[in-house]
Amino acid sequence: MADFGYDIADFFDIQDEYGTLEDFDELIAAAKQRDIKIILDFVPNHSSDENVWFEKSVRRERGYEDYYVWHDGYFNASTGKREPPSNWLQAFRGSAWEWNEQRGQYYLHQFAVKQPDLNYRNPAVVEQMKRVLTYWLNRGVAGFRVDAMPWCFEVPADATGRYPDEPLSGYTDDPDDSSYLKHIYTQDQPETVDMIYQWRQLFDDYKRVHGGDTRVIMVETWSGLDYTMQFYGNRTAKGAQIPFNFQFIIGGNGDKNNTQLNAPGFVKIINSWLSQMPAGQTANWVMGNHDQRRVGSRYGEQRIDLMNMLQMFLPGVSVTYQGEELGMTDLEISWADSRDPAACNSNEQIYQQFTRDPSRTPFHWSSEANAGFSSNSSTWLPINPNYVTVNVATEGAASSSHLQLYKQLHQLRQSKTLQLGNTKYAAVGDNVLGIKRSLSGQPSYVLIANVLDSAVSGIDLAAPLYAKESYKVKLANPQAQASVGASISLSSLTLQPHAALIVESA
What we know:
This protein is an alpha+beta fold. Helix content is 24%, strand content 15%.
């Protein structure tokens, strides 16, 4: 738990805080009865330093000598001191190399010191991780979300045993910050993509032998789009069905604050994925996750419903981080309350630019003490005071709420048009985003959104979307001030700030 579950001490067991293998099997069985599929978070890049594999590697036990990335380092002739093999930096600040006194070598850790990197250039490691995947497939999981995939391979050492230093990025003057370097030797290697292809082959073979539905691979990659798209596969190999699309996180204004992102900016983000995605593949949309500020805090609270409507309306897979369906927002966490190693490895003056704690506060189940999350006197992170109104029980009982609208969007996604239909999108001026979904023989739907904080009138969406039919309101956020079932003309729209509605062909 040095990184809250991303430092795995045993890939074949359940951490005590979360229960037992018997509890896990019961969960799988109960989910199956409800036609719910359970997907595990798979962390292949590293293990915990408390993993028996690492302990054996430290002792140089046979078969485990090269399970991790080890190096002697070098002596500095000027200082007479031993130094790390290269200038590589970890994601959580500082050198990616740590000296192990028992083994007498440095080991690579691209995340926390307690998360040593596995050596995927060792065939034994590759086979071991395939055994891990098969083990959990045998226990009934429907697939995996693969964590931090771009880090799995580093360039090999050269003929003299040296690793190349990474060049300076020019982004920051802080030499301990990961972004101080361009990670051209430690991320996004071609072998990483091939590993996904191998795992997809494993999953497809498993289905042929054992039956059932296709097992899914979701890949976390913050890489450039040209690299990310390779994870889908190529002409000779299948890859991940869902290489995560983080464009709504990293796109837009190029920072974490997209409150002023205009309609052309939205179109640019949507088009960046749909225009580069290989033919025959399925798009996906990830607005937020456990490493990022919440959608309502990044895009603005007035756009919470709008963003949920957009995510659920676009073609392909919608990925929702817990709490976004309620409209949960960030809680600023003090230095004293910080838990995230990405923050704790910095200092009180700069931790807020690294912390991931604000989006990890406890989930809001009810207006009861601790938001119904815990009966303990305190929780692991403070709870946002707005839990009194922003919670499942309160929003579920209300006639209109973020949660109620989200449920209605879920129902609309069952339509053939949203599952299989064509997509056309356009921006009109800076304010208005329009998306049309259509399928022969089925109703057409149009999402209309005023993404900015100023009202507009006389807007024509009918022409750019080729939406000449008559339409009636299907769903709307409160700002739209629209009545469900009311007729609407797409050729002359008046929209209040942040109004969003979905209309259906009459």
